[in-house]
Amino acid sequence: MSFFRKNISELEPYVPGKQPKENIVKLNANENPYPPSPKVVSAIDNFSKDNLRLYSDAVSEEVRKAAANSFRVNTDEIIVGNGSDDILTIIVRSFLETDGKIAVVDPSYTLYETLAEIHGVETEKFSLEEDYSLPESYFGTKAKVKFLPNPNAQTGTLFPQENIVRLCAESRGVVVIDEAYAAFANVTSIPLIKEFKNLVVLRTLSKSHSLAGMRIGFGIAEAEIVSGLMKVKDSYNVNSLSQVAATAALQDESYVQKNIEKIIETRNWFASALTDRGWEVVPSEANFVLAKPSIGEAKDIFAELEKSGYLVRHFSTPRLNDKLRFSIGTKEQMLGLLEKL
Question: What are the structural domains of the chain?
Answer without folding.
Answer: 6-35+254-340 (3.90.1150.10), 54-251 (3.40.640.10)
